[in-house]
Each structure stands twice: as structure tokens, then as C-alpha cells.
Specification:
7 helices; globular; 0% strand; mainly alpha
Length: 104
């Protein structure tokens, strides 16, 4: 498991409008690009969470909640849901997993 790489993928995806568009078009390809610039690889479960846009799984896997929020806001709003809907859904999903473990 690589919390560092999970957070790196999210930061890189949310860095520009073009990067968000690239992630939305091909999440797996975007992850491949980030992995190519890193010495680490995501686990199959981490990769699957990105490919499915499953922010609950990313949270459970240790994604930093502030980075995760910025990332999903860029990916989900306005295409999949409104900001208020996403806020409620984020709280609902995150609360199921409790407080994240930031140990490295």
C-alpha cells in the first residue's frame, strides 16, 4: 500500500483543468502516467478505487481527507453531482470508515 502514491495521483489529477479532464477520460491511463514517474506502484485495490472513482475506498485506503476532498470535488462536480450533494455524500461515506490512520 502506498498512501504517498494515492495522494500523489490525486494531487496531480487536481493540478490543472486538463489533468482533471484526462483523469475523467481515462483514470487507468492517468494512474499509469503517474506510476511511470514514481518508484512505487499502486496495489490492485488502490488502482481499482481510482478506476471506479470510489472515494470511499480511497478514504478507507488512507487517502488524506483534505487532498481527497479537493480531488473528488474536481472530478465529481458538476458532472456527477452538485457540490452540496457531494459534501453530504463525502461525510456519509467517510464516517463509515472512522478516523483515518495516517501512520506511514
Amino acid at each position: 500500500m502506498s498512501r504517498y502514491l494515492i495522494n500523489k495521483v490525486m494531487l496531480m489529477a487536481d493540478s490543472t483543468d486538463d489533468a482533471i479532464a484526462q483523469f475523467k477520460q481515462d483514470a487507468g491511463g492517468f494512474v499509469d502516467m503517474v506510476e511511470a514517474s514514481s518508484h512505487e506502484r499502486l496495489s490492485p485495490g488502490e488502482r481499482a478505487a481510482f478506476e471506479a472513482w470510489d472515494f470511499g475506498a480511497l478514504y478507507a485506503l488512507g487517502a488524506h481527507p483534505y487532498i481527497l476532498w479537493q480531488f473528488i470535488r474536481g472530478v465529481y462536480v458538476p458532472d456527477r453531482m452538485s457540490a452540496p450533494e457531494l459534501s453530504g455524500e463525502f461525510i456519509r461515506v467517510a464516517s463509515q470508515h472512522g478516523y483515518p490512520d495516517f501512520a506511514t
